[in-house]
Amino acid sequence: MFLKNKKALKNTVGIVFLSVFVLAQSVAKAQAPSPWKKIDEKPATLNIKEGFININTPAFQLKLLKSSQTVASLESVLAKGFDFTPGELLEKRSRDGLYHLGDLNLSYRANGAGDWTKISTASKRGDVAAVTTGGSVLAAANLAGTLPAGLPLEIIRYWELINGELVLRFKLTNKSSQPIELGALGIPVIFNNVMMEKTLEQTHAENVFYDPYVGKDAGYLQVTKLTGKGPVLLAVPYGKTPFEAYRPLLDDPTPRGITFEGFYEWMPL
């Protein structure tokens, strides 16, 4: 009789503990500040109000911001309404320092000597200057407006349709009279793995996971809907763009935690 009572007591205690634990979780969530609070306090600099450039390709419906010509959304024509990028967070992520697909990071120095200078198109936002398009070019821009003054490099970014495929290409030109050495070059690959403040059903419907193969000229990045079903996006090298490293963008202030591991960049150098 004593053992039966003890067993029943254990079961009862277990049930009560779980009930208290769930209640504590609910209270903690209700009282927790928004993870976006620090970002929301910063001024928006991406100039979303200037509007968008809408581009249709055989595989994608691409929307670029006119101000930056970075990606506002990238939808597969096979899954209309599903955005591979975090376009749903465009307003919140419209501040300096937050990366978007189409940004570029690099470090350089003159004559192969001295300290490296690191620059990023995301650090301090400014409008880019549209460049005349034609042929395979869908949109193009000179990025000087969103880069530091006095940069010895001219950087032009192109969105192109080549053999029916969407291509992101950067052209770097040395404007100075002395050699410029590049120490690092990174293309942020910003896709929607931001799952915070969502239900399981919402994440399955709206988010992705990505799987890199850091294989130099044979490297690729596979982006798949969280359910594992539907169209898959593959990012592969164009020309000489080896996948040499997959670096976490630790300076992007998008709140990281158990529901967001952070963004990365494809590094050909």
Describe this structure in words.
The chain is an alpha+beta fold. The protein folds into two domains: 2-32; 40-267, Beta-galactosidase, Chain A, domain 5 (Distorted Sandwich), CATH 2.70.98. Helices cover 15% and strands 33% of the residues. A hairpin with a 3-residue loop joins strand 1 (52-56) and strand 2 (60-65).
List the SSEs and their pairings.
Blueprint (H helix, E strand, L loop, with lengths): L1 H30 L5 H4 L11 E5 L3 E6 L5 E6 L28 E6 L6 E4 L8 E2 L6 E6 L10 E10 L2 E10 L5 E10 L10 H7 L1 E6 L6 E6 L6 E4 L9 E4 L15 E4 L2
Antiparallel strand pairs: 1-2, 2-3, 4-5, 4-10, 6-7, 7-8, 8-9, 10-15, 11-12, 12-13, 14-15
Cα gyration radius (Å): 23 Å
* Structural class assignment: alpha+beta
- Note the gap between the termini: 74 Å
Looking at the structure, the CATH topology of the largest domain is Beta-galactosidase, Chain A, domain 5
- Give, in spatial order, the strands making up the sheet with the most strands: 5-4-10-15-14
Helix content: 10-25%
Poorly predicted regions: 1-14
Strand fraction band?
25-35%
Q: Average pLDDT value?
A: 89
Shape descriptor:
globular
The largest sheet, given as strand count, sense and whether it forms a barrel, is: 5 strands, antiparallel
Count the DSSP helices: 3
